Automatic annotation (TrEMBL):
The keyword Repeat applies. The keyword Repeat applies. Keywords: Repeat. It comes from Arabidopsis thaliana. Residues 56-105, 165-209 form the DC1 domain. This is DC1 domain-containing protein. InterPro entries: C1-like_sf (IPR046349), DC1 (IPR004146), Vacuole_Formation_Reg (IPR053192). Transmembrane segments: none annotated. It comes from the Eukaryota.
């Protein structure tokens, strides 16, 4: 038998002591006698009416809600994730060009992440390009940050279990000594999300896990391109570039 840790609020949650004190799980802080942190995470926006919000990153103006597809041809980019608005619903400023995907507007102001065992804070101030810790891309939008750990908002909001339309099973971050091959791009990566089913070796790196499902491309300005996966593809899906 192993000793373990249990949650005072969730009696069914139990973790072996060896697992709970792993370096990638525990931050090394002894909390004996310390009151549990119960402070609620501040909401990212205030609802003004059915179609209007005031977002904490842009408190000087209200943001108006728009249904998907309105800005498809204008190539507008979300201030949070820096991706094109595309066919997604979004909020845009009534008085300036500030714009957020509806999904990005709802990202929490602080999080715990599977790759880091300290609370991260959502930073919305304009910044030069930074390097995301989960996948080494160089965005310039909002980011989750603490000390020298920085995540872009797409990687930062990945939580477990992670569900992706390319795979039937939930994915988890499992530390691994060796780099593993991503099923999306076939590249090797150190930080990956993996299926834990015994007979399944499916793996996604954070780059592929956060790819947009629909994009536009200059090769065909009139039609959107949808992301296809494995068994849903066929021999006719060859790159035209």
């Amino acid at each position: 038998m192993y000793g373990g840790y249990s949650c005072q609020r969730c009696p069914s949650y139990f973790v072996h002591s060896k697992c709970a004190t792993r370096r990638d799980v525990w931050n090394g802080k002894e909390l004996e006698g310390v009151h549990e942190e119960t402070k609620d995470v501040e909401a990212p926006y205030v609802v003004i009416d059915d179609n209007t919000i005031q977002h904490f990153s842009h408190i000087e103006h209200y943001l108006r809600h728009h249904v998907n597809g309105v800005l498809w041809e204008e190539n507008k980019r979300c201030r949070a994730c820096a991706h094109c608005i595309g066919l997604q619903s979004f909020y845009s400023c009534i008085d300036c060009d500030f714009i957020l995907h509806q999904t990005c507007a709802g990202f929490p102001t602080s999080i715990w992440h599977v790759l880091y065992n300290e609370r991260l804070t959502l930073v919305t101030s304009e910044a030069s390009i930074f390097e995301c810790y989960a996948y080494h891309r160089m965005p310039n939008g909002f980011r989750y940050q603490r000390d020298d750990k920085v995540f872009d908002v797409l990687c930062g909001t990945i939580s477990e279990p992670f569900h992706h339309p390319s795979h039937d099973h939930p994915l988890y971050y499992i530390p691994h000594d060796e780099r593993r091959q991503c099923n999306g791009c076939n590249e090797l990566a150190s930080l990956v999300l993996a299926c834990i089913e015994s007979d399944c070796k499916f793996v996604l790196d954070f780059k592929c896990a956060t790819l947009p499902l629909v994009v536009m491309h200059s090769i065909d300005d009139d039609h959107p391109f949808s992301l296809r996966f494995g068994k849903n593809t066929s021999g006719k899906h060859w790159c035209d570039i």
